Automatic annotation (TrEMBL):
InterPro entries per the UniProt record, alphabetical: Alkaline_phosphatase_core_sf, OpgB/LTA_synthase_biosynth, Sulfatase_N
Family annotation (SUPFAM superfamilies): Alkaline phosphatase-like
Protein name: Sulfatase-like hydrolase/transferase
Main location: membrane
Subcellular location: Cell membrane
Pfam families referenced in this protein's UniProt entry, alphabetically: Sulfatase
Natural source organism: Halomonas aquatica
Gene3D superfamilies: Alkaline Phosphatase, subunit A (3.40.720.10)
Membrane topology field: Multi-pass membrane protein
Domain of life the protein comes from: Bacteria
Domain called Sulfatase N-terminal: residue spans: 239-477
């Protein structure tokens, strides 16, 4: 491009401006709807054709340039935030945003997200500048732009969600979910309580089991499922779609409703996580279980370590504790340990627990399937060949194979006697390379049980991850009150789940509108209200006319 053409472009940037707006329009529609990515150029071309026909940016009767600031700049910027969240995570869950702001985001491994956010911000600034140019140059946009600002504000899902919750406080008692909640109560303990090995597979949803769409990516896990009770139809509720929320839903039987204003120090990380309820760790610790949590990522991220330490776990081992034990200190990723080394250390920990004696429980969280691309371990690359850096199905197969290999290894060593093995996804995956194939049908989480005396079969239900807690307790031989714990129902009992009785959308609507369950979760977190004793308040003394006359007579000589 010559210097003359550059000067001409700067002096007459009409088509550059229209192209920027068109690309943003196509990108936003593709990110917040289920339009395929190839729709972006189609929408852009359609916009440019319309702009040429309407002569936007070059009106037939131009008026002098007006140095005005469009009202729509702030609404457009808010939409930019929403589009970024949709592009990064697929489904936008404002609860996740609020929780991570309060629980702490240090020691995260999403360095790529930071670069993406910076690029997104620069692109958003370019959009705002382009729209400002269009409004200033083309006077026809000025009156319509005021109405556009109102439409953009009213239609933003983030502001709609906040407004809906605020209205609910006024219009509803906000306690329907709280009334459904059943405090977990163990009525009977089996004579020889089994051990528990709970293996969370990051983002490895059961939707990947469809071979027509995803090939053999889930095949190793499907083969493991031939030995297990496999639950189909485990849906994802709002406020359960990220790691901490998924673990709390499955261990506490309730969605993770963020602390919000109940948090007494808004700009400091949470000191406790759901302190108002008992979870799986509390119930097992009260019955003599030695409990360990292990994960390759830092436990300081999103309050993970706080949650496990406060809910009965003796040992909480994350990146900080495990990385010094690595034979190859450099063999780590941006989040922490790869799963092959994490599982090696998991075997060592189970050996230690077995030597210690008594029932034990170990919860493990993988990293291989983490969005957007996954972190396939070296053992997988040796087995599967070169990783292209983006194909999530490669990482799904890696995660499936590694966990299957771990279970077989523990079984061969005799470390799974009298042990219930649970394999579950922590939540549905966020936006990945296979996103367009994933969202074509209803999606479901992985949940399977393996162990002595468990007859392999498939159980088709309409349930959620909240039903995992009571199901685990009954699978371990514990007798629980009404087959229920939290908002969950044991899937081994035949009792209807909350989703079967009321539907996913109804429960989600209640989650967005209610506050009583939130207060239960965070009971004790807010500082106690300081009240002034009644006797410390000076009262007003009112004298009767008779008292006044009597006092005056006493003062006479």
């Amino acid at each position: 491009m010559t210097l003359h053409s550059c000067r001409h472009l700067l002096a007459h940037p009409r088509w550059v401006v229209l192209l920027v707006i068109g690309l943003w329009l196509g990108y936003a529609l593709a990110m917040i709807t289920r339009l395929p990515t190839w729709a972006i150029p189609a929408v852009t071309v359609g916009w440019l054709i319309l702009a040429r026909w309407r002569r936007w940016g070059a009106p037939a009767r131009p008026r002098p340039l007006a140095r005005v600031w469009p009202w729509s700049l702030a609404p457009l910027a808010l939409w930019g935030v929403y589009v970024y969240l949709a592009a990064s995570f697929g489904e936008v869950d404002l609860g996740a945003v609020f929780f991570h702001l309060q629980a702490g985001m240090s020691e995260h491994g999403g360095g790529g997200r930071i670069v993406s956010a910076l690029l997104h911000t620069l692109a958003m600034l370019l959009l705002l500048a382009s729209f400002t140019w269009l409004v200033r140059v083309d006077h026809r946009w000025r009156p319509a732009e005021h109405m556009l600002a109102v439409v953009l504000l009213a239609g933003n899902p983030m502001l709609y969600g906040l407004g809906q919750r605020g209205a609910a406080v006024v219009t509803d008692d906000g306690a329907w979910l709280d009334r459904q909640y059943v405090t977990p109560v163990v009525l009977e303990t089996p004579p020889s309580p089994p051990n528990l090995l709970l293996l969370y597979l990051e983002s490895l949803e059961r939707t990947y089991a469809d071979r027509e769409r995803f090939g053999n990516a889930y095949a190793p896990l499907a083969a493991l499922g031939e030995q297990a009770v496999v639950f189909e139809g485990i849906r994802q509720l709002d406020n359960t779609g990220w790691t901490m929320a998924g673990m709390i839903a499955s261990q506490c039987g309730t969605p993770l409703m963020p602390a919000g204003l109940l948090h007494d120090r808004q700009f400091e990380p949470l000191g406790k996580v759901v302190p108002g309820i008992d979870c799986l760790g509390d119930l097992l610790a009260d019955r003599g279980y030695a409990l360990t949590y292990m994960g390759g990522a830092s436990t300081s991220f999103a309050g993970k370590g706080v949650f496990y330490r406060d809910h009965g776990f003796d040992r909480v081992l994350g990146r900080e504790e495990l990385e010094p034990q690595l034979e190859e200190p450099d063999y780590v990723n941006s989040w922490g340990l790869y799963d092959d080394t994490l599982y090696d250390l998991t075997v060592e920990e189970i050996r230690r627990l077995e030597r210690q004696g008594g029932p034990w429980g170990l919860i493990n969280l993988s990293i291989s399937g983490h969005a957007p691309n996954g972190y396939p371990a070296r053992a997988c690359r040796e087995r599967q060949g070169e990783f292209d850096g983006t194909d999530i199905l490669y990482s799904v197969e890696c995660s499936s194979w590694l966990v299957s290999r771990l279970v077989e290894r523990l079984r061969d060593e005799g470390l799974l006697e009298n042990t219930l093995v649970v394999v579950a996804s922590d939540h549905l995956t966020m936006r990945v390379s296979a996103w367009e194939q994933l969202v074509t049908t209803e999606r479901e989480n992985t949940f399977m049980l393996l162990g002595e005396g468990i007859e392999p079969r498939r159980v088709r239900v309409e349930a959620s991850t909240m039903d995992v807690l009571p199901t685990l307790l009954e699978a371990m031989g514990f007798v629980i009150d009404w087959h229920r714990a939290g908002l969950g129902v044991s899937l081994l009992s035949g009792e209807p789940t909350l989703i079967e009785e009321h539907g996913l959308e109804t429960v989600n609507a209640r989650l967005r509108a209610e506050t009583a369950l939130q207060k239960r979760l965070w009971e004790g977190l807010a500082p106690p209200q300081v009240t002034t004793p009644a006797d410390s308040v000076a009262g007003q003394v009112i004298e009767t006319p008779e008292e006044t006359i009597a006092e005056a007579l006493e003062e006479l000589p």
